[in-house]
Amino acid sequence: MEKENLSIGEINNYLNKKSGFLGVSGISSDCRDLCAAIEAGNERAKLALDMFCYQIKKYIGAYSAAMGGLDAIVFTAGIGENTAIVRKLACQGLEYLGAELDEAVNDNVPRPINTTCLSKDSSKVKIYLIPTNEEYVIASDTAEIVSNLKK
Question: I need a surface site. Which of 30, 40, 55, 90 has the fewest CB within 10 A?
Fold first, then answer.
């Protein structure tokens, strides 16, 4: 902040809006845009996605160690639900933990998305895609709060 003479708001904007996917790729903070750029041969977009997946894999390994093993790996929300390459890259190399991704299933998730098992039958650690329904949760929580206000 001092070196660049930036305010807290400017630093916050920089870290939350201009870093991550956008900062590394120079293209976008949207994973869909990165995937399109990767298809077109953009190496910085590939680097951004590879770095993201490496971080996911690192957290899976760390939490597996902290918990003494894994029962399942779950992908959810926007990127987890919609980006097969992220799921694939994040799971590569986790076979030693017993997690085996079925790439054919991963690459062909039917729409609309339902809870889908993405792991091979032989996988000791199951890998799931579970869709979110954030709007439902917000509406449900709001209804509960409002009903408690009436009491």
Answer: 40
